[in-house]
Amino acid sequence: MTQAKQKKQERALVIVESPAKSKTIKKILGSNYQIEASYGHIRNLPDNVLGFDAAKGFEPTYVIIPEKKKVVSKLNELAPKFDKIYLASDPDREGEAIAWHVRQVLKVDDDKVFRIEFNEITPKAVKHAIENYRQIDMDKVKAQQTRQILDKLVGYKLSPVLWKQLGNYHLSAGRVQSVALRMICEREEEIENFVPQEYWSIHANLEKEGKIFEAELTKHKGKKVEIKNGDEAEKIKAELLEPDRKFVVDKVTDRQTQRKPTAPFITSTLQREASSKLGFGVSKTMQVAQKLYEGIELGEGAVGLITYMRTDSTRISDDARDAAKDFIVKNYGEKYYPEKPNVYQKGKQNVQDAHEAIRPSYPERTPDSIKQYLTSEQYRLYKLIWNKFMSSQMAPASIANRTVEIAAGDYTLKTGTSKVLFDGFLKLYNDTSDEEDAKEVKIPDLNKDDALNCKEILPKQHFTQPPPRYNEASLVKALEEYGIGRPSTYATIITVIQTRKYVEKVDKALKPTILGRTVSKQLCSQFADIMDYKFTAGMEEKLDKIAEQKLVWNKVLSDFYDPFMKEVNAVMKTAQKIQIESDVVCPNCGRKMLVRTSRFGTQFLGCSGYPECKTIFSLGEGGEVKQPGEETKVEEKCEKCGGDMVLKTGPYGKYVECVECKNRKKYIVSTGVKCPKCGEGDIIEKKSKYGKVFYGCNRYPECDFALWDAPTGDKCPKCGELLVKKAGKNGDKIVCSNRKCDYKLEVVANSENGQE
């Protein structure tokens, strides 16, 4: 690796992805460095064409994103004024591609442009990157381009199949999103097809010296007890309650075990733990983590608090290991540090180990020491990351386990308890859930041959349970286990399938809608390879091999392209329009109701007997059917007659109607988003004097905040402004409301992996 010694008089331009990093890096590098942002990608494949020619080796044609023309002009205006230019986009495949695109538009000589990368924004890491610059890794760039072309090709060719068959131009398919949808739909089928099986357990309340504890029946004549119904349970209960039945301690087993800490977070485990312990969605976790990585004002300037948050490596640097050791020994004592440092290895072969695990950049900055500078969400996530990392470097916990077997004639009952002898890493972090902790019970001191009194026999009925629906965290875990997607794509995948109305949230679980199940069924029946888990995971492995120079990028594309296009063309020739049949029966004629889509993209139910029967009614906000006549009373009174007003839902939206005179007016639709300008009002749907829908603060004219596009309620991970849903010809996009920011989450037909 080339070593670079910075001359004092040299001036350098550092180009990062996000302006949020600028203050943190500027503070580290000083006045001879100017920090500018590309605001993510500056070039992309053109929107309305594929952007590559299969006959010419799949070489892509890129265009400057229209909103980035000013950024490109500014960078080219600045570049000639500096001695060196460092491309400091994120340290992953996507970041490498961004660096290459920036290099392609800069009108300067090659000998002054260099690539640098750092996994954390600390003085040591940033200065080390400057001193160890390199050239752009074109193998990583080719891997990213291959991924981009694959996603564009699959979305661009499969989506029209859905349009033709389902008559809905708001639908999209994607190489990874459609497989994730299949996963959710198959889980729903498992739940629906599940047949509960009855089984019983028998518990005894036993007593020794006034102390009562519970034991469970486990064996009969040395064999495992399986009780299928209540009759069997009552028979066993009667036998255990026989007057001469004795309960005697038969065996006591004491065993001391060590419970070892688990590895520091990677992207998927952070998302899962933030979901279960903090209640954060996947997108929120990544947005908060992004801010912690880029830098927080701590009264001494901006400081990057964690390492890069898109990683699947559990490795940590020697410096981080040593800093953790010093902190643990100093604050908890030597016994809390293991004899040998803990080393973690992830089992999968596709780990990109250039990155570290997610950890605090400065272990000595405890969560409580900087709490005053953090928002509640930032503090909670930082504390989770800090505790997890520090605990991963600590000594194991010592647990004393006692198992007691109790003989009652030919029957054996079992009880047990455990006690923490040395808490070790548990002082900071416990991986088990509260429910698991609650299972630990206290029992009296029991010894072999102790006679026990039986106070009560309690048969308990149970039924086997179906597998639970995926939530965001468990879906991420499943995707990771199958090798589908990468750390940078999990949040995007989950957002896309919800935005497309393929999936809805029910009590935080992901449930497929009728539309989503129909889309998945069509794709699975017609494109078995594309929807196959192993096939999708295999493609991810091929992308990794391209980056490792083990495969040639356009050969991978060629091998995929020919059979794929043959399959698509065959389906398109025979594709017929199908109807999405719901489970709802028309209340007027008894025929099935069909899921239909208005020209505005709104889903509603219409009678399959149309035009003879014109019955229609809407699907509610959660996808539930709103039956005709369903209404909700509102506090408002009718302006004309003073009668009660009720809220109703029609196929094109909600309205309120008087129960007396039928006076009707449009219902004010609140987005549920607080106004970012005044902080008091709510953003509601409005119409301009020309009839165009826009969104503004309900405190107008006191507050004049307004948007043309519907706010999602989330904030941009790059600049912190509101994200909005923007309608386009090929579908919707999630974009930043700040026109100077380029954040965009593609949910159109030709893309599924937006840049976060």
Task: Based on the model shown, name its key terms.
single chain; alpha+beta; Rossmann fold; 25% strand; 756 residues; disordered N terminus; 6-stranded antiparallel beta barrel; 17 helices; 4-stranded parallel sheet
Mind explaining what this structure looks like?
- There is one protein chain.
- With 756 residues, the chain is of the alpha+beta class.
- Strand 11 and strand 12 form a beta hairpin.
- The longest helix is centred in the first third of the chain and has 29 residues, at 138-166.
- Helix 6 crosses helix 14 (490-499).
- The relative contact order is 0.12.
- A 6-stranded antiparallel beta barrel has the order 7-8-14-13-10-15. It has a 4-stranded parallel sheet with strand order 2-1-5-6, with helices on both faces. A 4-stranded antiparallel sheet has the order 18-19-20-21, with helices on one face.
- It folds into 6 domains: 12-136, Rossmann fold, CATH 3.40.50; 144-194 and 468-574, Topoisomerase I, domain 2; 198-260 and 397-463, Topoisomerase I, domain 3, CATH 2.70.20; 267-392, Orthogonal Bundle (Topoisomerase I, domain 4); 583-666, no CATH class; 670-748, no CATH class.
- 30% of the residues lie in helices and 25% in strands.
